[in-house]
From TrEMBL, chain A:
It comes from Thermococcus onnurineus (strain NA1). It comes from the Archaea. Keywords: Membrane, Transmembrane, Transmembrane helix. The chain crosses the membrane at residues 6-28, 40-62, 68-96. InterPro entries: PhaG_MnhG_YufB (IPR005133). This is Na+/H+ antiporter MnhG subunit.
Automatic annotation (TrEMBL), chain B:
It comes from the Archaea. This is Hypothetical Multisubunit Na+/H+ antiporter MnhB subunit. Keywords: Cell membrane, Membrane, Transmembrane, Transmembrane helix. Pfam families: MnhB. Its main location: membrane.
Length: 119, 251
């Protein structure tokens, strides 16, 4: 049981590292603010939440670790908080940038306009 | 290419240095440390707080901490003075502009959840100040994030409508300051020194470790810092247009 938890947690931490790398590359290479914001969110959700859950699983599986339930609980709760806060923050940033017309707006596809056009 | 070489050189240098110069491990406790441990954790007249740093900060270097706190409050009083307004101007600042579009729903909902969490976490930081690293100032700073988030996600008017305006924040802050002063002065009554914990306040209540005066200091500092920051944030959240109107700046 503890081995399954260990491998699951390790895989999640590795996924986190990969997501962080992709997020960083995207942040440097993507063309405009909105897509870069997407890359940043990949970095926070994939690169912080997933490894935090991984750490929680690892801690649960490690029998030798003192206070392992505390560590697992804290990681899990922190993960959930980041999971809630990161999309809200990204939404707020995108909304503000769009509202203030600070960023050039050249969508290839505009679903919102399509939906509004149907109304 | 040159940049890569520099980067790799730097990284190698840092890693080598970190490997070669390892931090020396202390072999035994120094005499001064022993004295502090004896008088803040062991011993009959101690606060029995396992968080010795808080104990030393508030009891052995209490005057120092008091003046640090005083600097913080002077900063707050200074900003309040810069933003002082007449009664009509206060009213003007508090009236909500009508055509304000609220932020998208997810932001507001998440803010509600996170504000509740922040309140719990900050109270935990402050009230465990005598047990774990942390304490009143840290807890208060965390507490001040809650109104800041509400200001960002809703508006300062939402905060004021729910009863937390500048005056209330200042009253709370004064209560905190008064509490700190009273807790500092109580030992004088029984012939001890000012701001000294031992042995005036009980270290335990019902078998629950409270660290003598530390929990009172932490609680009042928590209140004072949180409310002080909130007052300043409320002032800083006043829209620029209103100030331009008040100051008579032409567009």
């Amino acid at each position: 049981m503890s081995e399954i938890l260990f491998y699951l947690g390790a895989v999640m931490i590795i996924i986190g590292g990969i997501c962080d790398l992709f997020g960083a590359i995207g942040l440097l290479r993507f063309p405009n603010f909105y897509v870069r914001l997407h890359a940043a969110t990949v970095g926070t959700i994939g690169g912080a939440v997933v490894p935090l859950f991984g750490v929680a699983l690892l801690a649960l599986g490690a029998d030798f670790l003192p206070h392992r339930y505390a560590i697992a609980g804290a990681s899990f709760i922190t993960g959930i908080i980041v999971l809630l806060a990161a999309p809200a923050g990204a939404t707020a940033l995108a909304y503000a940038a769009h509202k203030a017309r600070l960023v050039e707006w050249k969508p290839k596809v505009d679903h919102l306009a399509e939906v509004r056009g149907d109304d | 290419m040159k940049r890569w070489v520099t980067l790799i050189l730097l990284l190698t240098a840092v890693i080598t240095l970190a490997y070669v110069f390892q931090v020396p491990q202390p072999e035994d406790v120094k005499p001064l440390g022993e004295f502090y441990l004896e008088n803040s954790y062991f011993g009959d007249y101690s606060a029995k707080s396992p968080e010795v740093i808080t104990s030393i900060l508030w009891d052995y270097r209490g005057i120092d901490t008091l003046f640090e706190t005083a600097v913080f409050f002077l900063a707050i009083i200074g900003s309040l003075t810069v933003f002082r307004l007449t009664k009509e101007q206060e009213k003007e600042v508090k009236t909500e502009p009508t055509q304000v579009e609220p932020l998208p729903l997810p932001i507001r909902t998440v803010t509600k959840v996170i504000v509740a969490m922040i309140l719990a976490v900050s109270a935990s930081i402050a009230l465990h100040g005598h047990l774990t690293p942390g304490g009143g100032f840290q807890g208060g700073s965390a507490l001040a994030v809650a109104p800041l988030l509400i200001i960002a996600a809703y508006s300062k008017y939402a905060l004021e409508k729910n009863g937390l305006d500048k005056t209330r924040a200042l009253i709370l802050r004064s209560i905190g300051l008064l509490g700190i002063a009273l807790v500092a002065l109580v030992p004088l009554l029984s012939g001890s020194y000012i701001m000294q914990n031992q042995p005036v306040f009980p270290a335990e209540i019902n078998g629950q470790l409270i660290g003598g005066s530390l929990i009172y200091y932490n609680f009042f500092e928590f209140l004072a810092v949180g409310a002080g920051f909130t007052a300043v944030f409320l002032l800083l959240a006043i829209p620029e247009e209103k100030f331009k109107k008040i100051l008579g700046v032409r567009r």
